[in-house]
Amino acid sequence: FELVCGQSWFQPILISIYFTGKMAGALVGGFLSDRFGRKPIFLIFTALQFIASIAMSFVNDVITYAVVLFISGGGSLVNFMAANLLGVEIVSPKYRSMVYFLMDVGYSCGYMILPLFAYCLRDWRWFLRVTGIVGILYIPYYWLIDESPYWLTSVGNEKKAREIRQKIAKLNGDQNQLNDETYDKTPDHVQGCFKSMSTVLSEPILIGRFLILSLAWIMVSMSYYAIALNTNRLSGNRFLNMFYGGLRELAGMIIFFIAVDVLGRRNTYSGVMSITAVSIALFVGHTFSGSQAAVTITTMLSKLALSVAYGVVYTYSGELFPTTTRHTIMATLSSIGRAGSMVSPFVIHRASGDTITPSCITAALIALSSATVMLLPETRNKILPQTAQQAV
């Protein structure tokens, strides 16, 4: 669309529109997931994302492109969060971190494959078409995956939940799983989504958790995407830089998987965000020294730490709130985090200006977030709460 020279100001706006779509989609999808179930929302928003990708390849004006980009952003986050909840609400507590680890391994592999597609398909329209057609691979998921037994129990459909538990026990060859305490936390009475949310908001402890996690999501999202969007500004081949970014993402998930089970959620988050704050300080110093190699190294170190932090906030946020509002709360937190994401392209776009002030402010807020998260309870190997009372 020739968004160069005098039109270059529109580039960060397009990126922010995409993040706005993520924010709006997360809010709508989170409520729908808690109301109608994880499986249908995962399937619908996955289809929406791939259809939007193909549709974008045929538009001829920037306004239509921005509208479809907004829709694409709306689908991309909801399906990821719904899939994450489907996983963590099916497995026992000791395997919850593995669910996110395996999901992000897939994300990392896709991250590394994308630059290969981009290198071979230099035309952006064909790039969008090919990546959109990949969505066909998800059609069998309609028959392959089941609804979350946790969600079914929370809305009073114990019969269907029991059937799925029996199926899981049969596949695992362990009938004792039917009596696993993981599934025995049936609520005393079933509440609707709105009623459950009002109950959560009436608990000061849960409100405090929400505020602490809001700051965590903002800082992780803003820092993560600011660094991700800065990848093209690094020295070297941009295709290889993106591939290395995928490798770093994979390394971050390996660290996440080990750390959250050894150190717990709180300590892991606090540790990696402290590393991020130090890396940002080093980044500023190396920028002024003119060392491009050092800038690249500190950038990748920050991204590695933030990859771990992202895994923690995704896992931790869902474990601190009840089933009937879990996706709504996570979606709301994620949407708050998108406010940070929406700022990141403008931070990069204005990178030629003053870098010391925003970097120092960011580092200070990261340090504050690192400290406040230590006030939250540890959830490692704990059973997921079904009600607000159990969450407290």
Automatic annotation (TrEMBL):
Q: Where in the cell is it found?
A: Membrane
Q: Which GO terms describe its molecular function?
A: transmembrane transporter activity
Keyword set, alphabetical order = Membrane, Transmembrane, Transmembrane helix
One GO cellular-component annotation of the UniProt record comes to: membrane
Question: What is this entry's stated membrane topology?
Answer: Multi-pass membrane protein
Residue ranges constituting the Major facilitator superfamily (MFS) profile domain according to the UniProt record: 1-381
Please state the span of the N-terminal signal peptide per the UniProt entry: none
Chief site of localization: membrane
Output the PROSITE patterns linked to this UniProt entry: MFS, SUGAR_TRANSPORT_1
Provide the transmembrane region boundaries.
12-33, 40-59, 65-86, 98-118, 124-144, 206-227, 239-260, 267-288, 294-316
Species per Swiss-Prot/TrEMBL record: Ciona savignyi
Q: Which protein are we looking at?
A: Major facilitator superfamily (MFS) profile domain-containing protein
Pfam families from the UniProt entry: Sugar_tr
Q: What domain of life? A: Eukaryota
Question: InterPro entries in the record, alphabetically?
Answer: MFS_dom, MFS_sugar_transport-like, MFS_trans_sf, Sugar_transporter_CS
